[in-house]
Amino acid sequence: MSWLSRAGARLLPAGRRDWAEAVWAEAREVPPGWPRLAWRAGGVRLIVREAQMMRRIGTLLLFAAAAGAAAWGAWPKSPVSLSHGAANQGDVIITIALLAGLPLLARWFLGPPDNRAARWLRAGFYAAILAIMPAKAVAELFVGAVPRGGIDRHTFDFVTQGNPLPGSVSGGPDWGGEILILFITACYLAVILALTARRTPVAPATLAISARAGLVLGLVMYAVAPLGLGKSATNPWLRGWPIDTLVALAWVLLFSAPFVAGALAGKRCYVPDDRDEASVARAWQGCAAGLVSNGVGALTVTVLGTGTTALMLKSAWIRGWLYHGQHLTASALYGRELYATQIVAFYAVICVVFPIIGLLAGLAGSECANMTGPLTDGGGPPGAPGPEPVPDPPDGGRLADAEADQDRLLGRYDGEDAEAPPGLVGAGLGWQAQGWAWRWHSSSDLSRRIVYSLG
Amino acid sequence: MKSRREFSPQTLSVLATLCEQPSRWQHGYALASQTGLKSGTLYPILIRLADRGLVEACWQEEPQPGRPRRHLYRLTADGLASATGALAASAQQQPAGRSAAAAGARQPGGRGVAAPAVR
Q1: Nearest-CB residue to B71 (from A22, A30, A46)
Q2: Is A42 in contact with B70 (Cβ distance < 8 A)?
Q3: Does B27 contact A392 at a Cβ distance shorter than 8 Å?
Q4: Least CB-packed of A168, A318, A340, A396 within 10 Å?
């Protein structure tokens, strides 16, 4: 039993292992038989509860189910050739192995995620990568199937310009492309696991801000391509839309989203008093914000774009939605589908270029935060000082009403030498006298500042 | 704003037991016997109380021969103050008869804890 207790205690965080051992040690004092068994069952319950095993098991089951579904969808059922099948199978197996293995490595070296933003971000990345797998397989299968003849073959040759298309029967399996995609996937996973780990000093606020900025960027990019920019593919859905404005907005967001995220992250993070250390801390937050922002943006547009393309190939309803009001011939539809699947490869470029731009723009944003004004605290990494506790009112005191007592409270600071009106013990409304001017230095709320005055 | 943390009836029963002899170290089985709580309920309560600095824990220095060391618990000064306040507030909220019943329920072998929830 002792080995069982030690094994069970190892599941617990270091600060909790004593407690599990305590239950087991105490079991010797319990009368043998059912009472002792019940006592030990309580110890098991304690381990399950303190190790958050239900959540771990639930997460594991959810991942297994999602990975199984993605692998089933991406597994080559009728590959265009044996070598294509091998390439796709290898892609699926290695991706699943990366998803399962890299978190263990990250946990070993950098610790688990310790806040909600980090957990949500990880879950989102996992969902995105798993969603891309079957969508990519559908698109690749379509590209790989070269028409035997007729106008479709003519269209195919026109799109490929007579060259053997990698991934098609004539071009052979696209090993280079598969390896590149696997490499990008591994890099994304490694970066996101590192940035969301406990021992990496990235504030939860940085993750939350940059993820939102990235989502906006990704959605606008998705509206541009494949829905808008690829005019011959799917533009009709946006017929009459100011597509040029949308493209301009996408370009602006590509640079401004990580810049703003980096600036906000740099402003909001807790920094040390030392100027150099503070600058480094802000730069760290800015880089992380830029990477996450454009990484999320790239992954969002990739998931939505690849998914839309795959659904377009599979579902007549989606085709009807994309080409609403148009009567396309079969060959014209084939041409658009082929064009859309060609764009899928472009997402790999997006996934490489966006984070690099994000890194630089986020760094620039943090520098901007470094130069501008005082920083607010809050949203920093664990250990940052929080707000001061609200003091208890003195005997006979009452809580001043921020609005009703405003005149009295402001009168307290009617000048640097002015004396407080009788009965007013202290005030901290956020107003301070600075010469002739009042400066409002906390615009958030009056009521947060607690003022007590004697009745 | 509430000045006092809320305690569940089970936690109150543990605090009441520890309050009876605040300076004495007590072990888990004795606490379980007096409160009627199972180990799976008692130890999470002790963990939370220790996290909040209300209970201190240590390992027995000189274990009995052939026996493993036991984990011991007692209230801290803060814990004693909190427990006293919480138990007094609990006693005020319930009728005298039920208080007596609650005290009786904390005898060895007692199953439930009759103290009402402090919410």
Answers
A1: A22
A2: no
A3: no
A4: A396
Query: Which range of residues forms the domain containing residue B25?
Result: 9-61+69-88
Give chain B's domain count. Answer: 1
Whole-complex ipTM = 0.74
Do the beta carbons of residue A110 and residue A199 sit within 8 Å? yes
CB pairs under 8 A between A and B: 63
CA A320 to chain centre: 32
pTM for the full predicted model: 0.62
Q: Tell me, what's the pLDDT at A149?
A: 65
Residues 6+ apart with CB under 8 A from A373: none
- Residues B98-106 have a mean pLDDT of 47
**Is residue B31 assigned to a domain?**
yes
**Ramachandran quadrant class, A325 (left: phi over 0; alpha: psi -120 to 50; beta: rest):** left
In a domain, B52, yes or no: yes
pLDDT of B38 over the 50 cut? yes
CA distance linking residue A317 with residue A311, whole number of Å: 9
- Which residues lie across from A217 on neighbouring strands? none
Q: Shortest CB distance from B29 goes to which of A26, A38, A45? A: A26
What stretches of B36-107 show up as alpha helix (H) in DSSP?
A: 39-51, 77-93, 96-105
| pLDDT tens per residue across span A201-241 | 888 889 999 999 999 999 988 887 665 444 444 455 555 55
Question: Which pLDDT score, from 0 to 100, does residue A115 have?
Answer: 86
A176 and A375 Cβ atoms separated by less than 8 Å: no
Q: How buried is residue A158: exposed, middle or buried, by Cβ count under 10 Å (0-12/13-18/19+)?
A: exposed
Asked if residue B99 belongs to a domain, the reply is: no
* Contact present, A188 and A299 (Cβ < 8 Å): yes
Closest by Cβ to B40, choosing from A24, A28, A46: A46
- Rounded-to-integer distance, Cα A238 and Cα B81, Å: 69
- Residues of chain B in contact with residue A23, where contact means CB-CB under 8 angstroms, are 28, 39, 43
* DSSP codes, A69-93: HHHHHHS-SS-SSHHHHHHHHHHHH
Q: B39 and A42 in contact by Cβ < 8 A?
A: yes
- Alpha-carbon distance of A135 to A304, in angstroms, equals 10
Q: What is the CATH number of the domain that holds B15?
A: 1.10.10.10
Residue B48 covered by a domain: yes
- Residue position matching structure tokens 């618990």: B73
Query: What are A108's two structure tokens?
Result: 């070993």
Say yes or no to pLDDT of A102 above 90. yes
Residue B73 backbone zone (phi > 0: left; psi -120 to 50: alpha; other: beta): beta
Residue with tokens 């094994």: A7
- Specify which residues A433 forms β-bridges with: A438
Bridge partner residues of A452 (DSSP): A399
> Amino acid letter at A45?
R
**Bridge partners of B58?**
B72
**Chain B residues near any Cβ of chain A (below 8 Å):** 1, 3, 27-29, 32, 38-44, 46-47, 57, 59, 67-71
